[in-house]
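Input record (Table S2, row 344):
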Amino acid sequence: MTQQSSVRLGVLGAGTVGSALIELIGARPELGISLGKVLVRDLGKDRGPHVPKHLLTTDMDAVLDSADVVVELIGGVERATEAIVRSLEAGKKVVTANKAVLAERWGGLEPYLAAGQLYFEAAVMAGTPVIGPLTGALRGSRPLELHAILNGTCNYILSQLEQGTSYDDALAEAQQLGYAEADPTLDVEGFDAAHKLTVLARLAFDPNTVWDDVKARTVGISALTPAHVKEAMEDGGRVRLVGSVYPADGAWRAEVRPVYLPPAHPLAGSASSRNGMVFRGDAVGEVFISGAGAGANPTASAVLADIIAALAGRPGPSPLTEAAPLPTDYLSADYKVEVLGTVL
Ligand code: NAP
Ligand code: HSE
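Output record (L-homoserine complex):
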C-alpha cells in the first residue's frame, strides 16, 4: 500500500471509538497513517497505553487547523456539525461515525456528500458494511423494502431480558461494554436507530426523507416488559427493535418500533449487540447482512476503512438524486413487512 505519512490525521474524540481507532492505527504501521492532534475534554483522563498523551489537546482549532483529513468522533450534534462543516468548507475530507449529525443536519452537508468528501460507514451498523452496499452494488436493483436491527444497545438489552437479566442491569452492562450513546435515552427510546434508518432511507429510497417524520414514527424499548419478551419466545420468536422502510400511502415510509419476529425471520437470529439488515430489491431479491453493530473495535474498524479510502483518493458514498419509484404490487404476500407484528 502507498505510504501516506505526509497526510496528517486530526482526530476529534478519544473515547470508546477514538481510543480504539488510535490503537488500531498504532497496530497497523504498514498503512503509513500519521496521527496528528487529538481533541478531548479532559486531559487528565486515563485512556490506556495506546493513546499518546502528547497529542491530546482541548483546543479544537489546533486539531482542525493542523489536519489534512479530519475524523469526528465526539458525538452530539451542534459542536460536531460545526467541526465537520468547517473542515469540509476548507476542502478537507471528513470521516465520521455520527449518525445524529447525518440525520439532523443532512441538508447542510449535501454539497459535500455530492463531492464525495464525507465518509460515514461506521455511522450505521458500526463495522458491518451497509452504507457501502446500499450506495454501491445494491443500486443495480430498485428497492422494495428494508428492515433492520440498527441499535446494539437495545438488541443487547432485549437479549439479556431473554436470559432473565433486569432491564436496568442490562442497560448498565451495555454502557459498560461501550455500546450505549453518551445519553442512553437516544438508544432505548429508539432515536439512535431512527437516525440510522433516516440515513439508509435517504441513500436507498428517498433523498428527501425528513428526520422529523421518522422521529414521529419512532417507538423505543423502554416500555417493554420481560413478559413481552418471554411471550415471543414461546414459539421460538423474538422481540426486536426494527427500523423499516416500505411503501405506504403512496410514499416511502420509515419507522422504528419493537416488533415480534417469527423464528424463521432472518433478523430473529441477531442476539447480543449484533445488528442485521434485510434489503429486498426487484432484481437482486433478498439480501441479508449481519454483524457487530456497536462497540469500540468493530466501529473503529469501519472508521479506519474510511480513512484508508479517503487517503487512497476514493470518494465517500454518493447520495441518491431522486426517490426510487414505488413498487405497484406492494401487497404481495412475499413482502416481509406483512409478518412483523408490532408489539407496543
Ligand atoms: P464517547 O466514548 O463518549 O467519546 C467521546 C469523546 O469525545 C471523548 O473522548 C470526549 O472527551 C470527546 N468529546 C466529547 N465532546 C467534546 C467536546 N465538546 N470537546 C472536546 N472533546 C469532546 O463516545 P463514543 O462511544 O466513542 O462515540 C463517538 C461517536 O461515534 C458518536 O457519534 C457515536 O454515536 C458514534 N458511534 C459509537 C459507537 C459505539 O459503539 N460506541 C458505534 C458507532 C458510532 P473526554 O474523553 O475527555 O470526555
Ligand atoms: N449506541 C449505538 C448502538 C452505538 O448501541 O447501536 C452504535 O452506533
